Amino acid sequence: MSQKTNSLKQLALQKFKKNFWGVLSFYFIALVGLISIFAYVFAPDNSQYANQMHLAIHSKQPGFKVQMLTIPSKITMNQSLIDRVFFGRKNTNTEVPISEYTITEDELVYKEFASDGLQGAEKELKLNIFPNNSPKEYIEHKTFLFGTDKYGRDLLSRVLVGARISFFIGFVAVLISLIIGVTLGSIAGYFGGKIDALIMWIINVTWSIPTLLLVIAITLALGKGFWQVFIAVGLTMWVEVARVVRGQIISTKEMQYVTAARALGYNDFRIITKHILPNIMAPVIVISAANFAAAILIESGLSFLGIGAQPPMASWGAMIKDHYNYIILGKPYLAVIPGLCIMSLVMAFMLIGNALRDAFDVKS
User: Are residues 100 and 160 in the same domain?
Assistant: First the structure.
């Protein structure tokens, strides 16, 4: 009778599957990742950056409904399906919220929507600007599930599109931190001596600078923008990874399997990458999960300060910045909704980090 043996990876995976909050967090993060990639497919407003403004219906409550008239443009935009799916639709049409309309023989007469009991302006349009002289196809009842922001944009669409920045900044920042941190930590821990002293001096100097201040300095040096923020956050998160990798390699490089690899004549690069790093990646994975959460919070803080993702790009931090004063004006949901999104995503990464820590713990 054969006996089934499990590797350490399989045992860790089995332990992780038993952690309810870890598994739930994993599926939540996967869902947010799917929404981030296909945000424009799910968003009601699939224009670029979900930036379709309707000032007449600004700051409306969740569930607000209105009739929307779309006035077709003579300008045609040639845009591929892939471009529309991943970067939004280049919209040249004009959308006008209306309260009522009538159709005559050759004109569409409509009254613009107005809030607070005011009467909107009455305007006319020739029917020939609509294909087949049929304006009814261009009038629809629109529901804003999360309401509208102070510019009259669909808040739900902005939240969905804004998830892309908060989610992908975690991946890019952690990738940059892993490349720099694992490389420098491995060199310092394996070779020691003056190389270790020099790298530790760089680590300590970088560690002594407040993270947010360092990110702001790098962002100002690289310029304001989408990728600049990603790089700036990543360049400030490698220090902790480097310290952990260095410590792990110092305690591992004298193990018997490393001595055996040296005796077989393997070069230092192969020993580090093929023998040492695969055996010390458990704590690095846990730190990476925590760094995901930290990167999201740092980007939100930068966007709140106005040096993160720039308008009209949607960002959860920028949405809070635009609407935090509405908390005392009776419309707190404009800032609370993106705040809850940040909190839930950060919490998911922290929970999955705790679950990974427990799964890789050999003592439990």
Answer: no
What pLDDT score does 2 carry? Answer: 40
CA distance 52 to 95: 8
Which structure tokens are listed for 287?
């730190």
Does residue 68 sit in the same domain as residue 104? yes
Do 176 and 242 touch, CB atoms closer than 8 A? no
Q: Please report which residue ranges of the chain form alpha helices under DSSP H.
A: 8-17, 20-37, 39-42, 81-87, 155-191, 193-208, 211-222, 226-234, 238-252, 256-263, 268-270, 277-305, 316-323, 333-360
Tens-digit pLDDT profile for residues 269-321: 999 888 898 888 888 888 888 888 888 888 888 888 877 778 888 889 889 98
Residue 239: closest CA among 184, 310, 195, 309: 184
Does residue 52 form part of some domain? no
CATH number of the domain encompassing residue 177: 1.10.3720.10
Range of the domain at 100: 61-144
* The last residue of a domain, from among 118, 144, 170: 144
The per-residue pLDDT of the chain, averaged, comes to 87
Q: Which of 241, 180, 219 has the alpha carbon at shortest distance from 301?
A: 219
CA distance linking residue 294 with residue 271, whole number of Å: 32
> pLDDT tens-digit profile of 29-59?
999 999 999 999 999 999 999 999 999 999 9
Decide which of 144, 165, 195 is a domain's last residue: 144
